[in-house]
Amino acid sequence: MGKLILILFFIPVIAFSSPLLEGVWESDVKTSMEFNIANSKMSDKQTVFLKQFLGNLKLTFDKGKAISYLREFDIKPLNSKKTHFESSKEIGTYKILGKDKSKIAVELNSPSLGKSLSMYSFESNNLMWVYVGESSKMFSYLHIREYFKRIK
């Protein structure tokens, strides 16, 4: 009986001992905006823009192949004209450089961006986030996260 209780106690730890990147991930606008409104340094104009922009990206990681799919959508920023974004799909490669119990460092290679580094942080097996613009001085100071939920 004591061994059973000990095993049941460690099941959540074992289940989330090493994050798995492979799968299909969809941008989670609700979770992203909850964090960003509470913690980021965005202006009202940036908040309106980001709320419309997030939630449109799907990422697939499968045996070294990375696919990003951005669905078609429109954005109407404060005091600006509506901007239309066409859907796009990009296929590249990825390589895991290292990981621990809650993060995976990845080298991405895409046709449009070339090689880049990303750090995916996992809050559970089915929820991860990445800093928006982590390699861009234009956005990195804002402390914006985009959350993704696993859908497959």
Describe the secondary structure blueprint for this structure.
Elements: H1 2-15, E1 23-27, H2 29-39, H3 44-53, E2 57-62, E3 65-70, E4 73-75, E5 83-85, E6 88-99, E7 103-110, E8 114-124, E9 127-131, E10 145-150
Antiparallel strand pairs: 1-2, 1-10, 2-3, 3-6, 4-5, 6-7, 7-8, 8-9, 9-10
Total number of beta strands:
10
CATH architecture: Beta Barrel
Shape: globular
N-end to C-end Cα span: 36 Å
Q: Rg to the nearest angstrom?
A: 18 Å
Q: Helical segment tally? A: 3
- N-to-C SSE string, H for helix and E for strand: HEHHEEEEEEEEE
Beta-strand residue percentage? 35-45%
Query: Could you describe the largest sheet, including whether it forms a barrel?
Result: 8 strands, antiparallel, barrel
Structural class: alpha+beta
Under CATH, the topology can be stated as Lipocalin
Task: Write down the domain tally.
Answer: 1
Q: Averaging pLDDT over every residue, what do you get?
A: 86
CATH class: Mainly Beta
Strand line-up of the largest beta sheet: 1-2-3-6-7-8-9-10
Low-confidence stretches: 2-16
Q: What percent of residues adopt helix (DSSP H or I)?
A: 10-25%
